[in-house]
Amino acid sequence: MSTQSSKKLVSQLCEACHVDAPKVSDEELKELIALIPDWVPQVRDNVMMLEREYKFKNYKLAWAFANKVSELAESEFHHPAILLEWGKVKVTWWTHAIGGLHKNDFICAAKTDELGE
């Protein structure tokens, strides 16, 4: 569920990201993660990512949500990992081009939360 503060992120658009774009700093990470408290920073293969699991009553509802996330990804031209299982969907955002987190990931995470409402 999005909070009033996450609305600040939702109103923004992803910007084109290139290989030398800056990763979020530790200070920015603290500020941005506070806006999307249900997301958990994870490090896999030395890459910082944002991850959240959404729960649903059945497979069909989870599948419909995964499709909405896919449509969001295409509209933002920023693509997460999506794991669809019975009754749950795990979404993981990170910026492939920089091998870590960019503000785009937080924007897309907040927009993903709105889809789950």
Reconstruct the topology from this structure:
Blueprint: H1 6-10, H2 26-35, E1 40-44, E2 47-55, H3 59-76, E3 81-85, E4 88-93, H4 103-115
Antiparallel strand pairs: 1-2, 2-4, 3-4
Helix pairs in contact: 3-4
How far apart are the termini? Answer: 6 Å
Q: Indicate the mean pLDDT.
A: 89
The assigned CATH architecture is: 2-Layer Sandwich
Helix-strand topology string:
HHEEHEEH
Count of DSSP-assigned helices? 4
Uncertain residue ranges: none
Tell me, briefly, the overall form. Answer: globular
Which CATH class? Answer: Alpha Beta
Helix/strand-derived category reads alpha+beta
Strand percentage lies at 15-25%
Largest sheet: 4 strands, antiparallel
Helix content: 25-40%
- In CATH, the homologous superfamily goes by the name Transcriptional coactivator/pterin dehydratase
Number of domain modules: 1
Side-by-side strand order of the widest sheet = 1-2-4-3
